[in-house]
């Protein structure tokens, strides 16, 4: 039953991922953490980090959520569910779809859904911050990482690695001087 | 949360904000879209509405809002938007 539930929800998520996989992060968070309670909040944050680090789409996150829910089978079902509809849409009717996407209504839908996703990404950033930015040095990491990601070509992997190392240093500093 | 993970997550937040900024630059191009983005943020952060619901409501609201303006450039330049 949990497998069906997971599959159904992830198919919906994949259809609402306007603006790429990262746009679906708020949806996956809501499902996995709040609604189904599969993944504890701090584990989810770490899973987001690792889905950035590993090559390929960020929605590989679904694999992790599926595994937490129902082991290897869960991982397989979740992965298939989240990539099935986009794959089907892309493969089945590339040409028809292209004309359909030109339809004024669908264009208008996308023009409004895009900004909504931007707002929701803000919500996700906020909810991640609430749990992890517990002291000012962590706010510095956020600022540095934002700056590096926007202004330089430093790979996200290096930024995340730097964040992890900085975290260890902050943890050590807190430990020695309470 | 261990120290390393906490550092990692804060770095993710930075990257996420960068993505938000980039998507914002490409998606928010007029007052109406800014209103939608702000409304979606408030709906999620304050009222904890379902993200899927917010995207759908925004999208359907966009059909009457944007379908006229979306058709205009096609009518003028023969489809090369």
Strand content of chain A: under 5%
Total number of beta strands of chain B: 0
Low-confidence stretches of chain B: 70-81
How would the global form of chain B be characterised? elongated
How large, in whole angstroms, is the Cα Rg of chain B? 17 Å
The overall average pLDDT of chain B, rounded, is 80
Task: Supply the number of helical segments of chain B.
Answer: 3
Oligomer: heterodimer
Radius of gyration of chain A: 18 Å
**Secondary structure: helix percent of chain A:** over 70%
Enumerate how many helices of chain A there are, as a single number: 8
> Distance between the terminal alpha carbons of chain A, to the nearest Å?
48 Å
Structure description:
The complex is a heterodimer of chains A (178) and B (81). Helix content of chain A is 81%, strand content 0%. Chain A contains eight helices and no strands. In chain A, helix 7 (136-151) runs antiparallel to helix 8. Chain A is globular, with a radius of gyration of 18 Å. The model of chain A has no long low-confidence stretch (mean pLDDT 80). Chain B is 83% helix and 0% strand. Chain B has helices spanning 3-27, 31-45, 51-77. Classes of the chains: A mainly alpha (178), B mainly alpha (81).
